[in-house]
Design goal:
Helices cover 70% and strands 3% of the residues. Helix 5 crosses helix 8 and helix 6 runs antiparallel to helix 7. It is elongated. It is mostly helical. The N terminus is likely disordered. The chain has ten helices and two strands; from the N terminus they run αααββααααααα. The chain has two domains: 76 residues, Winged helix-like DNA-binding domain superfamily/Winged helix DNA-binding domain (Arc Repressor Mutant, subunit A); 139 residues, Up-down Bundle (Four Helix Bundle (Hemerythrin (Met), subunit A)), CATH 1.20.120. It has a two-stranded antiparallel sheet with strand order 1-2.
Length: 247
Amino acid sequence: MKNQPRMRATVATDPDQRTRKAMTGVLSELVENVVSGTWPAGELLPAEETLLEHFGVSRPTLREGLQHMVAQGLIRSRPRAGTVVLPQSSWNLLDPLVLEAALRHVRDRKFYDNLIDARMLIEPEAAAQAATNGTPRALATIGAAFADMVESEGRDTESWSIADLTFHTAIIEASDNWVLRQFIVAIRAALMTSFRMTNRASQSHEQAIEMHRKVHDAIQRRAAPAARTAMQDLIGLARIDMDRTLS
């Protein structure tokens, strides 16, 4: 039997993969510099040659990163005028990289109030729809996430935050509404970060378990109005915890 030709490993040597990795690193740092205020709104970005020397990447890679920044409303580039940093009001905060950086640096109370407001508008209805439309498998996923929350050692642990995110995600998935599903995809990073913040601030693990249990039980009973009300109460607790965190 003839020897088969050997396949060459591509994980570490694939030029496209190296380019993508470099692109991700460049873009992350560019976004971080704007969102953190290292490059304040209204100021010009460093010259392209300076950025090329700093990042050590090709000109196309750098320009691709800058184009993404333009698309997300972080910067504006004009011929002969240079590239200027735009204010937060122009940013696309639903872009995962922008949102992740904003959650690390933005301490504006309104920023977090808006997140809670959006959850209050969407998640109670998602819970009601989950109670009405959820398949047995979808409801089992919600139950498994709740069980993980119960088994966690406390609200200030990473295991709780992960289970909490899974619980809320599973409810929206169970709603069988593609618009609501897109919402959770858009703000998944924001939810995880806010859960970490509020869970550390919470003073009652038992209270949180009980409020999640009410949402869980109402959905499992197919009681849509009760599920809606229980989710409203749960997000109300999140607002209280966020107030405590930011005070």
